[in-house]
Structure to design on (118 residues):
């Protein structure tokens, strides 16, 4: 019986989907592993999904935010001019109306420190 309850709880966690992912480091404190930001595929696998879901949902042509962050070159441009770092790490004004998890911030910081490679 007890193991049945555990399976239900496990299923519940899986069902939370995106929420579960966002709260990863809350469920497992210290479990954040930003990975190797210089490795091939870091942009595609780790950073791009984050930018698409948390930034490009406003920053797309016709969206509420300026620019088009669905394109790597445009995201690279705001890293190169420093506005990304200022707004995401320093003032935390972006994402507007929301906040990034500590783990997502670590991943973004690692990527920026690596020179924001594609
Ligand atoms: C809810 C909508 C929304 C989200 C989500 C959002 N932004 Fe913005 N962003 C805006 C708006 C609106 C502006 C322009 C007004 C302002 O600066 O507050 C802006 C301005 C900016 C600017 C300055 C203008 C420019 O292009 O140089 C940058 C850089 C920026 N956002 C980066 C980001 C990043 C990076 C994320 C994700 C971590 C993000 N934003 C998420 C709405 C959003």
């Amino acid at each position: 019986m007890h193991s049945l309850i555990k399976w239900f709880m496990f299923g519940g966690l899986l069902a939370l989907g995106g929420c579960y992912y966002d709260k990863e480091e809350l469920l497992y404190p210290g479990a954040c592993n930003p990975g190797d930001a210089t490795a091939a595929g870091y942009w595609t696998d780790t950073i791009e999904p984050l930018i698409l879901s948390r930034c490009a949902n406003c920053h797309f042509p016709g969206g509420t935010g300026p620019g088009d962050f669905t394109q790597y070159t445009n995201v690279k441009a705001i890293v190169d001019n420093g506005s990304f770092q200022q707004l995401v790490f320093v003032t935390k004004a972006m994402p507007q109306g929301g906040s990034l998890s500590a783990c997502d911030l670590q991943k973004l910081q690692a990527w920026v420190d690596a020179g924001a490679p594609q």
The pocket of heme C is lined by residues 54-55, 57-59, 64-67, 78, 83-84, 87-88, 94-97 (CB under 6 Å). The mean pLDDT is 87.
